[in-house]
Design a protein that fits this description.
Layout (H helix, E strand, L loop, with lengths): L2 E5 L12 H15 L3 E6 L19 H12 L4 E4 L10 H6 L3 E2 L3 E5 L2 E6 L9 H10 L2 H8 L3 H14 L17 H9 L7 E4 L5 E5 L6 E5 L7 E5 L4 E5 L11
Parallel strand pairs: 1-2, 2-3, 3-4, 6-7, 7-9
Antiparallel strand pairs: 1-10, 5-6, 8-9, 10-11
Length: about 260
């Protein structure tokens, strides 16, 4: 039986439990493992801790990971990429080089008779108005054009500095805050009538979460991250569950 895989928040480029290069090799082992039975792979944002794609320049590094994506696509496995808040400046490279579609908004998809709403999750739900304003600026084509005029040596250095300041990568998230305080969960419960789905799959939160929504049947799945948890979700056509790669002590929250 072929399976659908979902993962997010690799944050390649910064250390976590392991160095970025060690984590990259770990991801290659995972991709090799799932390639045996994958019918489709969803990469749901923040694969890189920072990515800005100049017209003729892409960020240095990640050669093994990018090569593996090319290998999977050449083998005929569909891959979907969603931009996150750390790699929203992905433009045409993945589409032109690998044939991987780039999604900037949550996507509603049907898979084996089940409905999925899939997105990275940043900027959704109540509050966080400062970030929402900043995201609007970052997504503006004029400001993107201005940044592209800056030499990559300087521009990438400044951007990586601010990317590192945006969150502390070392301690993992360890607490589920409940339906009233998990802002993505508040957003999803509000979407139940307008965008009904069986599964609402997001990243960004950095905590593996599997939570039944207020209608009693739909589920909110947060994919966690690969800085510490190595978590991902797999759908076998009937059941969906969060699993952990090379991490036997991984925990699922929100149940």
């Amino acid at each position: 039986m072929l399976k659908t895989y979902f993962a997010s928040d690799f944050h390649l480029g910064v250390p976590g439990k392991y160095s970025s290069s060690e984590r990259e090799r770990q991801l290659l082992r995972w991709l090799d493992q799932i390639s045996v039975d994958a019918q489709e792979i969803f990469l749901v944002g923040d694969l890189f801790d920072f990515w800005f794609e100049y017209k003729r320049v892409i960020p240095k590094g990640y050669t093994r990971f990018l090569g593996k994506l090319a290998e999977l696509r050449d083998a005929g496995i569909p891959i979907q990429f969603f931009t996150g808040n750390h790699d929203m400046w992905m433009f045409r490279y993945f589409e032109d080089e690998f044939g991987i579609p780039i999604h900037r908004q949550p996507l509603l998809r049907e898979i084996n008779g089940k409905t999925f709403l899939i997105g990275h999750g940043d900027g959704l739900g109540p509050g966080d108005y400062g970030y929402k304003m900043l995201k609007h600026i970052f997504a503006n084509p004029f400001f993107q054009w201005c940044f592209a005029r800056v030499h990559p040596n300087f521009g990438m250095g400044v951007a990586q500095f601010w990317s590192g300041r945006s969150r502390d990568v070392h301690p993992p998230q360890t607490q589920f805050l409940g339906p009233e305080n998990e802002w993505l969960l508040v957003y999803i419960n509000a979407q139940l009538e307008h965008k009904p789905a069986d599964f609402y799959i997001f990243g960004h939160r950095h905590l593996p979460i599997d939570h039944v929504l207020k209608n009693g049947t739909s589920r909110y799945i947060n994919l966690g991250e690969w800085l510490h948890y190595n978590s991902y979700a797999v759908f076998d056509g009937e059941n969906l569950e969060i699993q952990f790669f090379e991490n036997p002590q991984g925990l699922v929250f929100g149940r």
